[in-house]
Records
---
Amino acid sequence: MEQDTISKLQFAELNSGIFENAKTIAEGPNWFVNWADFPALVQFPDSKRLLAHWLQKSDKGTYDYDVRISSSDQGLDTWGSSKILHNDGIATEHGFVSIIPYQDGLLAVWLDGRHMTKLEAKDKVKDGHAHGSGAMTLRSAFIDQENNISKRIELDDQVCECCQTDIAITDKGPIVVYRNNEGGIRDIYYTRGIQDDWTIPKPIYEDGWQIAGCPVNGPRIDARGAHAAITWYSGADQSIKTIYSIDSGASFSEPIVVNNKETLGRLDLCFISQNEYVISYMESQDKQANIILKKFNVETDSFVELKVGQTSSARASGFPRLAADQDNLYVSYTYVDSTYQRVVVKGVNI
C-alpha cells in the first residue's frame, strides 16, 4: 500500500429499509488492505455501541501488520482512539479476526504470527505466500465494555496461515472453527469454551486435504440455542459440506454435501429459525460467479436453493456475508465488472 493512499473504514445504518449516509470510523495511509481479510463491526451486548476492527501496518515487511480495534459512542457518531488487539509487540502478521457478543462483553479470536520468522529476500520465491517459517497460531481474548482486553490465550499452536476464523455462542458456550495445518493437511478444526477453559482442538471431519499453500477459504459457524451448524470448503473432493449439532456442539451430524459443482467457496452461514439455516457461496461460471443461497432444514435434511446475484470470480468480489434479524434475511456482496464495483445488500425470502 502506497503511503500516499488513504484507506477509510465506513459504515451506514439501515433504517426503515433505507441506508443512511455513510459515516467514517477511521482512516489512514498505512493500512493493510486485503481482499480476504477484511474489517467488520460487532455490537456490544445490551447496547447500541459498536466495535470495529481493521489491519494496520506495523513495519516495512509486506506481512507486518496489527489488528486495531475502536468502539463508538451510543449515538454511533464518535469513535474512540484505536488500540491493538494483541500484545506481543512483534512486527509480523495478525489478522482473520472474528468477534462476537459474549457474556457482558465481546469474545475475539484471530490468527497470530508471533512465532513466525521472516524470510530472507532470496527465499521468498520458495514460498508462494512469503509468510516465513514457524507456525501461525490461533488466539483469543475478551473485550469488556470499556475496551479493556483480558483473558488472552493460545487456542492452537499450528493453524493455516490465511483462512478465516469464526465463532458462535451456543447455550453452553462458544465454539471456534478454523482451518488447521497439521503436517500440511488443511482440515477444519473446532474448540469449545467450557467453564472458562477450552477443549483440545479436533477436526470436525477428516477430509485429508493436503495442499502446499493456504486455500484462503475458512469455515463458517452459527448457533441458535442448542443448535449449531458449520459449513466449509474442501479441495479434497471439490465440495462444500455442512454438519449440525443439536446439543451445543457436544456432537455433530455426519457431513452433508451442499455443493459439488465448480465453486469458489467463500462461504457464510446464518440461522433463520431454530431448525433452519442458510449457507451462501459463490459458484463459478467462466469468469463470473453466481451468489447462491441454500436453506437447510435440520428436521427434514432438505435443501432449498436460490440464486441471488452475480459478480466477477476475481478476488475483488470478496466474500458475501449473511445477516438476519427476527423478520428478515440479508445478503451483502461486492458486485464487480470491468467498469466499477459496489456493495450490494439485498433482503431475501427463501
---
Amino acid sequence: MKPNVILVGAGPGDPELITLKAVKALKNADVVLYDALINRSLLEYAPKNAPKIFVGKKGGKKSMQQEEINELIVRCANCYGTVVRLKGGDPFIFGRGFEELEFAKKFDLSTEVIPGVSSINAVPASANIPLTSRGLSESFWVITATTRNHELSRDIELAAQSTATMVILMGLRKLPEIVMVLQRAGKGNLPMAVISSGTTIEEKSVYGKADEILAKVEAANISSPALIIAGKVAQQQENRTPAAELKAEWLNEFLTNKVA
C-alpha cells in the first residue's frame, strides 16, 4: 500500500461532464473525500467497499474546517492508500485544492491533479452564452465575489471599467452590491444572466439588464449555487432566434440564391 492523494475535478454538476481520467481514478480509489457541489451519482464509480466521506461546506451551515480536512486527507492516505479528493468543477479554481496538496506533501505523500470541467465556462456554454464573441467581447474576467474578509472583491470594480465579460462566482448574496458597482460605472443597461445549479436538472436562470436583474432574481426565487454573467454576450440569449426559425431563414435564403 502506497499512500497517495489524487485531487480530482468532478465537473460542474452534470455527471456526464466528468473526465474519463477522473472516472478511472475513482474506480481505483481506496477512500473518497467529496465536496457538497459534486453529483452524488459519481460516487458509484468508486469501489463499494471504499469509504465515501462527506467533507463539503455550505454557506450558513456547520461544516468541517479546512485544517480538519487537510489532516483527514493525510490520515486516510496512511490508513487506506489511495485517497481521491473529489471537488466540484476544477479543483484549482476557487477550490483550495492547492492548499490541500501542499499540506499532503509535507507528509511525503505522493500527489496528482486531475483537472475538471469548470462551471466558469461550462454553465454559460450550456445556456448558449459565449464568454467571448467577435464584436461583443474580446476577453473575460473570472472573479469570486466574496473575499476572505467577506467583502466584495475589488476586482469587480476594475472589471466593470472594461468591455470584458464578467463571470462572478459565489456572488448571489453580493448581487445588490455588484449591481451598484455596475450602475456607478454607467452600466445600468448592461445585459446580465444569473444561472442557478447550472448543467443540472435543477438549473434555473434569469436574464435582464443590470437595473432590473435583482427584481427578476427575487421573482424567480433563484438560490445558490449560482453563476453571474455580466456583459454584452448575455444579451444573445435574450435575443436569440429559435433554431428552427434560423434554419428556415437560412434554407429559404439559400434556395432563393440558388434559383436566382
---
Amino acid sequence: MTLRPRFRRVAVLAAAALTLGVLGNAVGLGSAAVQADTLHQAKNHLTELQKRIRARRQKLARLERQMNRTAKRIDHTQSALAEIQHQLDRVAVRLADTRSQIAKLQAEMDKRIRAAYIQGPGTPIELVLTAPTYNALVERLSMLDRMTQSDAELADQIRIVQQQLQERTAQLTALQAQRTALLHQLNDRRQKLQSSYDEQHKLLSYLAQQRAIVMQQITALQPFAVCPVMGPRAFSDDFGAPRTAGGYHPHAGNDILAPMGARIVAPFDGTATVGHDTLGGLTVNVTGANGYVYNAHLSKIGKTGKVRAGDVVGYVGNSGDARGGPTHDHFEWHPNQIPAHPHKSPYGFTKVGDAIDPYPFLMQAC
C-alpha cells in the first residue's frame, strides 16, 4: 500500500512538532480521510505555536542565566557575611581582653590611691625634710622617684589601653554596619531570586499549556508521536488476518518485523506495564490519555512506569507462540473511543474487540 499524500503531510507535521519537543500523548481519533485544508490550517496553527514556544524557551534560558548570576552573588554575599562575622568575633575577644586589662590597671591605681590615703597627707617635701639621716634622705628620694615613674607608666598604660578600646569599639561598629548592609543586600537578592522563580514558573506553565494545545492538534491527526519500533523494520496491513494459535481468531494488530533486540518505544506519553501470556509471551502495554497499545513477543523489558514518547519500553523478540519464528513486535492499538469511520483492512476488518487497525497511523509515524 502506497503512502497517501495527506499521510505524508501529517508525518512531516508530526516530525516537526517532535523536533521541538512538544509532542506527548498524541492519540488521534480521526480517520484517514482528513481534508487537506484542515491539515493545512492545523499545520499553520502548529507553526505559530512553535514560534511562540521557541520565544518563551529563549526567554526562559535568559531567565535561568540571570538566576544563576543572582545565586552566585548571594553566595559571595554569604561568604562576605561569614568573614565579617569572623572578624566581629575576633574584635569582640580583643575588646574583652582590653576591658580586662583596663580593669586590672584601674585596680592597681585604686590600690595605690588607698595606700597613699593610709600613709596620710604628707607631701614629698615633708618626706625629704623629715629624713633623720643622709642615707634615709637618699632612700626616700629614690623611693619617690620610683613611685613617680611607676605612676606615670601606669597612667600611660591606661591611656594606651583606653585608646585601643576606642579603636576596637569603632572597628566593631563599622563591621556591624557592613554586616547590616550585607544582610539588606542579601535580602534584596533573595527577593529578586524569588521573583525570578515566580516568572520561571509562569513561563513553564505557559509552555505546558502550549504543549497541551499542540498535543490536541496532533491528536486530531495522528495518535502515535513516534514509530513504536526503532531502526530497520517492515510491516503490512495484516489486521484481521486469520490466526490459529490458541484457536482460530482474527489478527488484532500489525506485526512489525525487526531484528532481534530492536528497540520498542512508547508511541506517546503514558504508563508502561509489563505482562506475560501464552500467546504474546513477554508483553508491555503503554497506556495514555486516550487509549493503550499492546506490544507482544518481546525478548526483554525496558523502562516501565511513567514514560514519555520515545522512551524504550522493550526489545523485539519472538517469545510466546512466536518462538522459533521471525522476530517481530505484535502491535495493537486500543483507543478509548472507536472513531466513527475507522480504517478497513484488506481482510475486511475495522475492529477486533476494542482494537482498531493501527496500519494507517503506523504509516504516518513510521
---
Amino acid sequence: MKALYLGTWNHIQPVLDFPETKDFIFIDTQPRSEFDDKSFHLEFYKPHFVLRLFDVCNSYGFELIKTVELNSNYYKQIFTVYQRLYYLYHPIPQYINPTLLVFINKKTQQTIKYYISTNIEYNMDISLAKSLSEYDSLIVSGFIPNKYLFSFFNQPKTFIGYTKTKYNIDNDDEIGKNSIMNTNEWYMYFDYIILVDYITGNKTILNKLSDLF
C-alpha cells in the first residue's frame, strides 16, 4: 500500500502500525498556518514545527535526504502590501512556501514524502498531483479532510481511521457538510475500512463508515 495522511503534524506512528506500507505521503499546512487560507498571519505561523518534525522522524529512524521548495514565490501571493514592505527588510519566515521533505528509513525500507506548508486546494503542482494519484489508502486521525479530496480518487481507497478522532461531526456547519464523512455513498470512495487504536495500534475491520461513530 501507499498511504496518504492529511493533517499529519508529527503523528508518525502509522509507519510502525503499517510496516508493510513502504510509501507514505504526509501533508500539512503547517508551519505556515494550522488554519490556512490565501493569506499569511504571523500569529498562526509555527516556527518550531519543522525542527520538531525532524526530531520525531529521526526518533523513528528516518533520515532527511531531500528538501524541495515547490513554489519559491508563493509568499508573494499571500502577503499584504504591508507585509511585502516589511519583509523587504526582515527575513521571510522559513518554510512558508509549499515544500517537499523526503525521509528514508534504511532499515525498514520505508519512505515518507512530507509536504509542509501545503494546501491541496491552493498549492497543487506536478509533484503533489503525482503523489495524490498514486496512493491507495487514506489515513485519518484528528483532522477530517474536505470532500475536495474526492476529486483525486481514481478508484476506491482503504480508509484507515484512528481512535481519538471525532468522526460524527456536525453536518449542518460549513466544515461538516463539506467533509469526507458526509457521504451516503461511502462505498464509491472506500472499499475497505480499518479502525486503528491510537495507543496500541490494534486494528479492527469495519463494514461501513458509520461504524466509526
